[in-house]
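User: These chains co-purify. Model them together.
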Amino acid sequence: MIVKYYKDVPLESDPNGKKAGIRWLLSKKDGAKNFAMRMIEVEPGGSTPLHSHPWEHEVYIVEGESKIKIGDEDKNVKEEHAVFVPSGVKHTFRNIGEKTLRMICVIPLKEE
Amino acid sequence: MIVKYYKDVPLESDPNGKKAGIRWLLSKKDGAKNFAMRMIEVEPGGSTPLHSHPWEHEVYIVEGESKIKIGDEDKNVKEEHAVFVPSGVKHTFRNIGEKTLRMICVIPLKEE
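Assistant: Joint model of the two components:
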């Protein structure tokens, strides 16, 4: 049975982000064919890179507080909220809280 | 911007489960093309139906403790763990804790 505690999956630093990293929780190596589940982590004051790509994100904030920018919109969002990031729209998640911001982020695998 | 607090999404009871329900957090209605993100909730003593289907699940346990059965394997799994359920394998999640078991569960949308 494939079960993983998130901290047992290596945290890879995102060279384009600021104090941001990613854990690939479930992906092709686990037999996933359609989509990959990652944990994105951002330290206080850090942010994911402002970027866009031709695929969507489905995000669930597990812990922390973020100022999210998607296209021209900004919104402060706390844990236990789901966020949809459409394909082709610039977005960034900034940690505006005092804890590590942790988010489940799912992407289509064909784009991995 | 599509942002949803999980409790603002209706909890639909699962008639085949025991004290189990589902919230469709992100799906086609939100513009998702490839996969849907749901929150599965199981009350103490309840369980999701033992069933299989020709698509995979990617699960993240947000809160609670579950005895998971996938195929012939059983495992007790707590919050902050990711679980991969392969396509075509019978599985059930039983709540063996005292809190509501809450899990993010992602499925391919073509099978919705």
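Chain A has one domain: 11-105.
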